[in-house]
């Protein structure tokens, strides 16, 4: 009586991983309705004004990445930024 149970247990132990691999599928994400008209914006690098050392994280890069990933905005690469205002009064808006 013990031999058939051992055979059944061994067979189950061998076949279970094969069945699990056959059932496994890759993750598939479908994005429907992306925003083709993302608003173009510029995130100006923020100058550090403090007594301690500058932080290791580039805050402007984090903001730029977050806005890009939202899909609502299309940010201009930092290398293409013409003006670099540090105050709101220095921003020159298009006429």
From TrEMBL:
Coiled-coil blocks: none
Keyword hit for Signal: yes
Any GO BP: protein transport
Residue ranges of every copy of the TolB N-terminal domain listed in the record: 27-94
Keywords tagged on the record: Signal
Pfam families: TolB_N
Cellular component terms per the entry's GO annotation: periplasmic space
Signal sequence coordinates: 1-22
Domain of life: Bacteria
InterPro entries named among the record's database cross-references: TolB_N
The keyword Signal appears for this protein: yes
Protein name as it appears in the record: Tol-Pal system protein TolB
Native source organism of the sequence: Stenotrophomonas nitritireducens
Lineage per the UniProt record: Bacteria, Pseudomonadati, Pseudomonadota, Gammaproteobacteria, Lysobacterales
């Amino acid at each position: 009586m013990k031999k058939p149970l051992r055979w059944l247990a061994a067979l189950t132990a061998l076949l279970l991983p094969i069945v699990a691999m056959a059932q496994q599928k890759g993750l598939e994400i479908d994005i429907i309705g992306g925003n083709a008209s993302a608003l173009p914006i510029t995130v100006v690098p923020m100058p550090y004004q403090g007594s301690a050392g500058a932080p290791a994280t580039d805050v402007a890069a984090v903001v730029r990445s977050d806005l890009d990933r939202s899909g609502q905005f299309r940010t201009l690469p930092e290398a293409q930024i013409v003006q670099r205002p540090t105050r709101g009064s220095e921003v020159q808006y298009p006429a």
